[in-house]
Design a protein that fits this description.
heterotrimer; A alpha/beta (339); B mainly alpha (85); C alpha/beta (404); A: 339 residues; alpha/beta; Peroxisomal Thiolase, Chain A, domain 1; 10-stranded mixed β-sheet; 32% helix; globular; B: 85 residues; mainly alpha; Non-ribosomal Peptide Synthetase Peptidyl Carrier Protein, Chain A; 52% helix; 0% strand
Chain lengths: 339, 85, 404
C-alpha cells in the first residue's frame, strides 16, 4: 500500500483564501455569504467563461491553481464532490420552464445544470481523458471524492489525483433552505456559504507536505457510539486520542453541535479544538474548506489567531483530526499528519 | 436590411453572452462558427430558438443551421425571406 | 497490453442478487418475460403533465406514486420523491433476491446513482415553498443524496453510503466503485445501482438539445431520429468471492473502466475516443481479449451522434468479426442515471438465459459504419457480456459481466 500525500490545497471561499499566502480569517455574518471571486479571466478563456455559472468558475479556477501549485499538467484522475450541484443553472432552466410554460427554452442552462459539469469542464479544459467521477451525497460529497482518491493512490497505483469540493449559493432554493432554518430555534446559525476547494493527492513524498492518513464516513452514528467510533478509527491508524494535536470540528450553531461536544470529550484537555464554519459558512462541501485549513495549519505550523479560543499554543502541530456531520447524519473523520 | 443585421449582432452578443464583443466587432461576412467568431453547436441551438421566438421561423433539424448561420449576411437574408413575425 | 493489476491478488466480485423496476416490468420476473418476448415498454407520457406530450414517447414505470407508496407501506406524510420510491422498490428486491440479511455482523455499503435528485417534486412545488407549509418537506428532498439516504435507511445500512452523478453513466460508475471497494478489501458486501424518475425538467432539457424522437427509438438505424426518455431503478448485490462459498452466484463483475472523452460538454467525439478508452480499460482489468466478449449491451441511445460515435469505438475495439450487440433502450427508453444499472441487470440476465436481447425497431445499417445490431432474440453460448454507458461531460464507462 502506498502512502498518500497532499501536494497542493487551494480554496475559493468567503475568506481571502485564494490569494493570500497565510490565512487571516474574519467572521462572516448575514443569511447567505458569497465567496470572494478571483479574477477568473486569468484561469479560464472568455469563450468558455461566458457559459459558466459561479460554481463551475470557482471549481475550474481552484482546480487549475491546485494543479499549478503541484506542478502537474494532467492528473491521473479528476474527482469532484458537490452537494447541490449546479443549482444556479438548475434554477435558471426550471424558472424558464415555469415562466415560458415549456416554450422557447434554450439548452445552455440545461447542459450546464448536470452535477458533473465542474468535473467535465476541468477535463475538457485540460484535455484530460483519465478517470473522472462526481459525488453528490449531501455532506459526504467531498468526503466520497476524497475517499475514492485515497483508494486510487493507496491501492491502485495511481500517481496524481485531483480532488475537490464545490457548491454555489444559487439565488432561490437557498432562500427556502434559510427560511426553514430560521423558523427552527435549533436550526443552523452560521450563514449559508459557498466555495470550491481543490487538492492534488499524490503517491510521491516531497518536502513539507501533508500526509492524508485515512478517512472514514458513516451514514448514521448514534451520539452514544461516537467516542468509540473515533477511538476505533484512530487505533486503526495506530494512534490514540493523545496523539491528536488539533481537532477541527464542523460546528454550525444548530442543535446537532452536541455531536462535536461529545467528540471532543474523547480527547485530552491539551488538544486544540477549532471550528471553521463561522468563516466559510455552512454548505454541503464546507468540510473541504476545513481540510484546506488543516493543510495550512500543518504546513505553516501556525494557527490563525482568530481561530483560537485560548492562547494555549502547542509547540508542535503534527497530527490533525477533522470531524464533520450534518443534522446528526453523514459523519466523516479525516486524519492528517505533517511529514 | 442593415437594421436587421445590426439587430442580429446585438441579439447574438446578448444571447450568447459574448461580453467582450460589440456589434462593430462582427463583420457581416465573418464566419460565425469555427475559425470566425468561434461559436459551436450549443450556440447553434440557442440561435435556432431565437429564430423561432423572434421571427417565427421553425427549424426541425439542427443540421439546417449549418447553412443558415454561416454569417450575419446569410442569416439576415434567410430571415428576411422566411420570417413570420 | 500491459496489465498492472494482473499479478496482484485481487478479490473477485460476485453478483448475488439483482432487483429492477422499469417500463417493461415492476419486478425481475416481469422484466425477464418482456425481454424474452421482445415486448417494449415505450409509449405515451401519462404520469407527468407536459406540453411536449404529443411530440415524445417515453418509457414510464406503470405504477403511480400512490401505488408505489402503498406497495412500500410508507406513512402518508412521507417526503419520498418518485426517484426514491422507484429506488427503494428495486433495492428491496435485490436484497431479497440475494437472500442476505443486513445486520451488524458484516458491514454492507450502499452506492446509488441519480441525475436530477428530487426534481420530480421540486418542479411541482418550487413556487409554493415560501407559503405552503405542506410542500416544505420537499425542500430537503431535492439534493441528489436524498433518495440514497432514504433507501439506505429503509434497508438498515448505516456505514459507507454515497451517491454518484455523472449524467447518463452514473450507475455504471456506482457499480464500478462498489467493485473497487471489494477488490481493494474495503468492503465485503455492497449494494450498487441507480434510480431516476422522469421529470418535466429532463424532458424539456433534452427537447432543447433537439435529440428526442417523436416515435419509438431506433438504435443503430441509419434513419434514427433521437432518443426516448425513460425512468427506472435497478440494484445489484456485490459480494467478495470468499463471502459466497455456499451461495448461488448469478454472475461475476470482472471488468470496469472509466474514461473521459474530453471533447464537448454534450456531444461525443467522432472517433469515440472516451468510449474506446473505457472499453479498453475494462478488458484490461478483466484480463480478457476483445474476442472473448460474446455480447455487447451498447449504450445505443438512438441519437445520431451517440450511435455513430459508439459504432466507431466498437469497430476500433472489436474489428471483425463484431460480436452480437444491441441496445435495450428500445425496450426501456433511456433511463439516464439508472441506465448503467438497468443494463447491468439485463447483462446478468443475458448470462443466465444465454440469450442476446434484441435491438428492437432496427431496419437499415448506418451508412458510415455498416454495423448491424442483433435485432431478434438469439440463444447462444455467452460467457462474457460488455455493457457501455456514456454521459454528458464526456463521462464514459464500461462494465464486463462474466459467467465465471
Amino acid at each position: 500500500m502506498n502512502s498518500c500525500y497532499i501536494h497542493s490545497a487551494v480554496s475559493i471561499s468567503a475568506q481571502n483564501s485564494f490569494e493570500l499566502e497565510f490565512l487571516e480569517l474574519f467572521e462572516i455574518s448575514g443569511k447567505n455569504v458569497e465567496a470572494i471571486a478571483p479574477n477568473y479571466k486569468e484561469y479560464i478563456s472568455p469563450m468558455v467563461l461566458r457559459r459558466m455559472a459561479t460554481g463551475v468558475k470557482m471549481g475550474v479556477a481552484a482546480a487549475s491553481k491546485a494543479l499549478q501549485n503541484a506542478n502537474i499538467d494532467k492528473p491521473n484522475a479528476i474527482l469532484t464532490g458537490t452537494g447541490m450541484g449546479c443549482i444556479e443553472d438548475t434554477e435558471k432552466f426550471l424558472n424558464s420552464i415555469i415562466a415560458n410554460d415549456e416554450e422557447f427554452l434554450t439548452p445552455t442552462s440545461f447542459i450546464q445544470s448536470t452535477h458533473n459539469t465542474v468535473g467535465a469542464q476541468i477535463a475538457l479544459g485540460l484535455q484530460c481523458k483519465a478517470y473522472n467521477n462526481t459525488y453528490v451525497h449531501g455532506a459526504l460529497s467531498f468526503e466520497s471524492a476524497l475517499l475514492d482518491g485515497l483508494l486510487m493512490v493507496q491501492n491502485e497505483e495511481t500517481k496524481n489525483v485531483l480532488v475537490g469540493g464545490v457548491d454555489e449559493l444559487g439565488t432561490e432554493f437557498v432562500d427556502y433552505v434559510r427560511m426553514l432554518e430560521d423558523q427552527n430555534p435549533n436550526g443552523i446559525k452560521v450563514p449559508i456559504g459557498e466555495g470550491a476547494s481543490f487538492f492534488v493527492l499524490s503517491s510521491e513524498k516531497k518536502h513539507n507536505v501533508v500526509e492524508l492518513l485515512g478517512i472514514k464516513t458513516s451514514s448514521k452514528l448514534s451520539i452514544h457510539s461516537l467516542q468509540n467510533e473515533l477511538i476505533a478509527f484512530l487505533s486503526h491508524h495506530h494512534l490514540k486520542p493523545d496523539s491528536i494535536d488539533v481537532l477541527i470540528l464542523g460546528n454550525n450553531g444548530d442543535s446537532f453541535d452536541d455531536y462535536y461536544d461529545e467528540a471532543s470529550k474523547a480527547f485530552p484537555q491539551e488538544t486544540i479544538n477549532l471550528s471553521y464554519k463561522q468563516f466559510c459558512g455552512e454548505f454541503y462541501t464546507a468540510s473541504a474548506f476545513g481540510l484546506f485549513l488543516g493543510c495550512e495549519i500543518l504546513k505553516s505550523q501556525q494557527i490563525p489567531e482568530t481561530l483560537l479560543q485560548h492562547k494555549a499554543q502547542k509547540t508542535s502541530l503534527k497530527t490533525i483530526l477533522l470531524y464533520n456531520q450534518f443534522k446528526g447524519r453523514d459523519h466523516s473523520f479525516i486524519l492528517l499528519r505533517q511529514c | 436590411m442593415s437594421e436587421l443585421k445590426q439587430e442580429l449582432k446585438e441579439k447574438i452578443i446578448d444571447i450568447l453572452n459574448l461580453e467582450d464583443l460589440s456589434p462593430s466587432d462582427i463583420n457581416n461576412n465573418d464566419a460565425l462558427f469555427g475559425d470566425g467568431l468561434g461559436l459551436d453547436s450549443i450556440d447553434a441551438l440557442e440561435l435556432i430558438v431565437m429564430l423561432d421566438k423572434d421571427f417565427g421561423i421553425q427549424l426541425t433539424d439542427p443540421k439546417q443551421g449549418k447553412e443558415i448561420f454561416k454569417s450575419i449576411s446569410v442569416l439576415a437574408d434567410y430571415i428576411a425571406e422566411h420570417r413570420k413575425k | 497490453m500491459p496489465n498492472i493489476e494482473k499479478n496482484k491478488a485481487r478479490k473477485g466480485v460476485a453478483i448475488t442478487g439483482i432487483g429492477i423496476i422499469s417500463a417493461i416490468g415492476n419486478t425481475l420476473e416481469e422484466n425477464r418475460i418482456s425481454l424474452l418476448s421482445s415486448q417494449s415498454g415505450i409509449g405515451d407520457v401519462t404520469q407527468i403533465k407536459t406540453k411536449q406530450a404529443s411530440q415524445i414517447k417515453v418509457g414510464e414505470v406503470k405504477l403511480t406514486n400512490d401505488e408505489l407508496i402503498d406497495q412500500l407501506n410508507l406513512p402518508k406524510d412521507n417526503n419520498f420523491t418518485r426517484t426514491a420510491l422507484l429506488g427503494l422498490v428495486a433495492a428491496k428486491e435485490a436484497v431479497k433476491n440475494s437472500g442476505i440479511s443486513i445486520d451488524a455482523s458484516i458491514e454492507t455499503g450502499f452506492i446509488s446513482a441519480t441525475s436530477v435528485g428530487g426534481m420530480d417534486k421540486t418542479e411541482i412545488h418550487l413556487k409554493d415553498f415560501p407559503s405552503k407549509r405542506e410542500t416544505q418537506k420537499y425542500v430537503s428532498s431535492h439534493h441528489a443524496g436524498d433518495s440514497t439516504q432514504k433507501i439506505a435507511d429503509a434497508l438498515g445500512i448505516n456505514g459507507f453510503v454515497t451517491t454518484i452523478s455523472t449524467a447518463c453513466s452514473s450507475a455504471a460508475n456506482a457499480i464500478m466503485l462498489g467493485a473497487r471497494m471489494i477488490t481493494s478489501g474495503q468492503l465485503d458486501r455492497v449494494i450498487v445501482g441507480g434510480t431516476d424518475a422522469l421529470s418535466k425538467f429532463t424532458i424539456n432539457g433534452f427537447k432543447t438539445l433537439m435529440i428526442l424522437s417523436d416515435d419509438v427509438c431506433t438504435p443503430f438505424d441509419e434513419d434514427r431520429k433521437g432518443l426516448n426518455l425513460g425512468e427506472a431503478a435497478a440494484y445489484l448485490v456485490l459480494e467478495s468471492d470468499e463471502m459466497t462459498k455456499n451461495k448461488n452466484v448469478l454472475a461475476y463483475l470482472t471488468g470496469y473502466g472509466n474514461a473521459n472523452d474530453a471533447f464537448h460538454q454534450t456531444a461525443s467525439s467522432e472517433t469515440g475516443e472516451g468510449a474506446f478508452l473505457a472499453m479498453q480499460k475494462a478488458l484490461q482489468i478483466a484480463d480478457l481479449k476483445s474476442s472473448d466478449i460474446n455480447y455487447v449491451n451498447a449504450h445505443g441511445t438512438a441519437t445520431p451522434n451517440n450511435d455513430l460515435s459508439e459504432s466507431m469505438a466498437l469497430t476500433r475495439i472489436f474489428g471483425e468479426p463484431m460480436p452480437d450487440f444491441s441496445s435495450t433502450k428500445s425496450f426501456t427508453g433511456h433511463t439516464l442515471a439508472a441506465a448503467g444499472a438497468i443494463e447491468a441487470v439485463f447483462s446478468v440476465m443475458a448470462l443466465q438465459e444465454q440469450t442476446v436481447w434484441p435491438n428492437l425497431n432496427f431496419r437499415t445499417k448506418i451508412e458510415e459504419t455498416g454495423l448491424e445490431p442483433t435485432s431478434v432474440l438469439k440463444t447462444k453460448n455467452i460467457q462474457n457480456v460488455l455493457s457501455n454507458s456514456f454521459g454528458f461531460g464526456g463521462n464514459c464507462s464500461t462494465l464486463i459481466f462474466s459467467k465465471r
